[in-house]
Design brief:
Number of domains: 2
Strand content: 15-25%
Helix content: 40-55%
Bound molecules: histidyl-adenosine monophosphate
Number of strands: 17
CATH architecture of the largest domain: 2-Layer Sandwich
Number of helices: 18
Distance between the termini: 54 Å
Largest sheet: 9 strands, mixed
CATH topology of the largest domain: BirA Bifunctional Protein, domain 2
Shape: elongated
């Protein structure tokens, strides 16, 4: 039989490969908690219907579907947002608002496997539910920026492109492309970067060209200044209340980002429309500055999703940041390698007959909070020391016949190369001090 391999688009994460990802998780958790977000979990299996209308055609086409023994149509979670909305909608009145939650699920999408795109990946989700304040939009972006800074990335490495679906919708509406058709316009704009210009123009002109010239729209979407954009659109197509309100909302998010001190990381970029169906307002994506990688992170405001899943409408904003693109970006900048955080102490027995004493010392050190290793089988001391080295030990405790008589041991600090004798009692009472690795 042919050897069975890992499924295409999944990863076998051996400890060595998982270590840098753990470091990313730590940065994600730390940033979330510092900003007041609490961790939650959801099931990996959901009813297929949850995604049918909520996520948009592209994602539904990528679902891993299955039918359970009762004939129910299920799917492996391709994203967290519908599950979060479902869970919150079910308890909306019992939860104090704003709800600030985060999670790090494993997600599944049947995508074309390519650089930065797998079929199974981790995705950090950060969401605020129950506030329509632009400061909430800015705060979720802030959490994302702080986590990346924690990992060593700076404004030289990445930037946040902020857009607003509501503003784009207002421009389209001013150009007589109404609600029902806007989803089609977003889908085209979302793909614009990946399509040949002729192909895009042909598709646009066929549907919308008579009402709004693609060239003109793209010029507006390239604007870097919201108020000048509103003036220009208003001048050409007539100012509307919605255009004014959407421009003000966009400016508010940009100002809130500056007030949080991260304005330098952020720029207006209305070319971002996001592929998912449920966004209603400001949306954003994080990109690496070299543009070598896909988006590191994407999110935005989705004020209608909870209302569709429950009885009550509730404003919400959040993002998802995957581990795959982020790892590539860290690697591009030599920031992936994690400092070996294991501070292992190795306990060796120099002669036979000291095994139970060794086990007592090992258990005592571990109980005192030291990561401790030893060999299951007694071997020559030189071999054990080589083993200690392989484990990356910072100190070695050597038990021998002679020191045993004094209820003591030899400790060697591998960084300084110094050795000394210490009593077992003092070693177990304060191992860091006894080993000189405080
Ligand atoms: P999304 O844009 O589909 O948004 O995904 C967000 C991020 O997840 C991407 O920028 C990328 O880093 C990562 N990602 C997505 N698909 C893959 C893949 N196949 N392989 C590797 N990484 C991937 C959402 O999922 C929204 N639910 C985010 C959100 C949360 N919006 C509001 N709250």
């Amino acid at each position: 039989m042919a050897k069975i391999q890992a499924v295409k688009g999944t990863r076998d994460l051996y400890p060595e490969q998982f270590r840098p990802i753990r470091r990313i998780f730590d940065a994600w958790r730390r940033a979330s908690e510092l900003h007041g977000f609490e961790e939650f979990e959801s099931p990996t299996l959901e009813y297929l219907d949850l995604y049918r209308e909520k996520s948009g055609d592209e994602l539904v086409g990528q679902l891993y579907r299955l039918t359970d023994s009762g004939g129910r149509e299920l799917a492996l979670q391709p994203e967290m947002t519908p599950s979060l909305a479902r869970m919150v909608a079910a308890k909306i009145n019992a939860l104090p608002k704003p709800i600030k939650w985060f999670c790090i699920p494993k997600l599944f999408r049947g995508e074309n496997v390519q650089r930065g795109r797998l079929r199974e990946f981790f995705q950090w989700n950060v969401d605020v539910i129950g506030s329509d304040s632009s400061i909430a939009d800015a705060e979720v972006i802030l959490v994302g920026i702080e986590a990346l800074r924690n990992l060593g990335l700076t404004a030289e490495h990445f930037s946040v492109h902020v857009s607003n679906r509501r503003l784009i919708a207002a421009i389209l509406a001013a150009g007589k492309i109404e609600d029902g058709e806007q989803a089609g316009a977003y889908a085209l704009l979302d793909k614009a970067g990946k399509m040949k210009p002729d192909e895009l123009a042909a598709k646009w002109n066929e549907k919308f060209g008579e009402r709004l010239a693609l060239e003109q729209l793209r010029e507006w979407l390239s604007a870097r200044d919201v108020s000048r954009l509103a003036e220009s659109v208003g001048g050409a197509l007539g100012m509307t209340e919605e255009l004014e309100a959407a421009s003000a909302q966009t400016s508010d998010v940009m100002s809130a980002l500056s007030a949080f001190g991260v304005g330098d990381f952020c720029q207006l970029d209305l070319k971002i429309v996001r592929g998912l169906a449920y966004y209603t307002g400001p949306v954003f994506e994080f990109f690496d500055k070299s543009q070598n990688e896909r988006a590191i992170c994407g999110g935005g405001r989705y004020d209608d999703l909870l209302g569709k899943l429950g009885k009550q409408k509730e404003p919400a904003v959040g993002f998802g940041m995957g581990d795959v693109v982020l790892s590539l970006l860290l690697e591009d900048h030599g920031l992936l390698a994690s400092p070996d955080r294991r501070r292992i102490v190795f306990v060796a027995d120099a002669t036979d007959g000291l095994r139970s004493e060794l086990q007592r010392v090992v258990a005592g050190l571990r109980r005192a909070g030291m990561q401790t290793e030893f060999n299951y089988v007694q071997q020559a001391l030189g071999k054990q020391l080589r083993h200690a080295d392989k484990h990356g030990a910072v100190a070695v405790v050597i038990l021998g016949d002679e020191t045993r008589e004094r209820n003591a041991c030899q400790v060697k600090n591998l960084a300084s190369g110094t050795s000394k004798e210490v009593s077992i009692d003092s070693l177990l009472a304060d191992p860091a001090a006894a080993l000189g690795i405080a």
